[in-house]
Amino acid sequence: MAAMSSDAKIAVGVGVVVFAILFFKLLRGFIRFFFRHPFWFILLLVFGGIGFAFNILLGGAVILAALVGGGAFMLLGNFDN
């Protein structure tokens, strides 16, 4: 990161912050959902759907963070080169 411009560092930081927020919201949402619906928790636990659903939602969080970071790059003018 030493060779990156300050605008690029800001854009990467924005992407990391967005990912961290979405990741912790995902964890909190999973915990709240499974405490409210224990039947679904047991059903998904038995059939292996918890990991699948978590990975799909985590992938969505990564994609959204990449889009926001890319938007910050474009907004700060780093695609001019």
UniProtKB/TrEMBL annotation:
Residue spans crossing the bilayer: 6-27, 39-68
Keyword Membrane found: yes
The protein's name: Uncharacterized protein
Alphabetical UniProt keywords: Membrane, Transmembrane, Transmembrane helix
Origin superkingdom: Bacteria
Keyword Transmembrane helix assigned: yes
Species this chain originates from: Candidatus Levilactobacillus faecigallinarum
